[in-house]
Amino acid sequence: MKRAYYTLIPYTIRIKIKRIKHRKTIDVSKTYFDHQETQFKNHTDNLIFDDQRRTDILRIFSLLRKNGFDVFPEIDDAIRAKYFTRKLNIEKDHETNLFYILIDNKKLFYKNGMNETTIKQSFDLVSLEQDYRSPHRYLTNDNYFVGVVGSDSKQFNGDSFGINEGDVVVDAGAAEGNFALSVVEKASKVYIIEGDAEWCKALKQTFAPYKEKVEIIQKYLSDNTNDNNITLKDLIKKYNIKKIDFLKMDIEGYEQKALNGATLDKTNFTEINKMAICIYHNPQDETTISNFLAQYGYKFYLTDGYIVISDSNNPIIRKGILRAYKEQNHKNN
User: Fold this and answer.
1) Each residue of 220-271: pLDDT tens digit?
2) What's the CA gap between 219 and 201, in Å, rounded?
3) pTM of the entire structure?
4) Nearest Cα to 270, choosing from 280, 262, 278?
């Protein structure tokens, strides 16, 4: 019966049914939607919002009230359907017993214990996160990203934030490695930092064709170095890295700690030219990380759109990615 439902009912209809059901759940928290202004003040995370931010937040509230909870409420169902209804080529490597997705002529391996169903769900979600309209996109839209569905309406305003030929890249919080795989052909060297041992096994298979230029480091990026963690300062020292052209950090709320572990010498912080940093994990991250980088002379801006975080049926709305750069290293087309 369940299989027939998924076969006969189109994805766009299924998602609408799901949202209606979820909206009924959210509507139980009437005080939230009946007192939007009060809840808005409670969930601004003590940040100073200008009029545009306030207007944006209230617009997201309206979308949530109409459609139900959604992490990316501004991405419409038609775009979403392109990801979740596509056919993926998922195969098993019999030497390692790991599944992989063959996508864009690249093999992206997944860790032990994941089956074809969970792999498809995971890959579709991380691809949607990097869609041209997503607030979670690390790179500007002129930059290739593995698995992202092409779009005729791709927006590009002339600011190019991404990887240039020959760049040295650090990918902190790599998981399956979709970011590193997207940029590895352009980069001269990629340092992948991932603390999960099972992910590291999969990463070694994914980047086997690029082993001369990829270093996989089984540690977490943090503000101290020990058996499980490494700081940016010690990473640079250990691997004799002369510069980092691009640092991507998606490390589940430890982004500020990782920055603290970069260096105490402000003059040396210029070794890192560009950064894409997740700022939605903690309520204070947008403020603390932007203030931290400003003191080192970085320019920065936030990606368009908003991410919605569920908290006991009371959605919290935050910005997704902070893109920071040294002004002389930011390319304008």
Assistant:
1) 999 999 999 999 999 998 999 989 999 999 998 899 999 988 765 555 555 7
2) 13
3) 0.85
4) 262
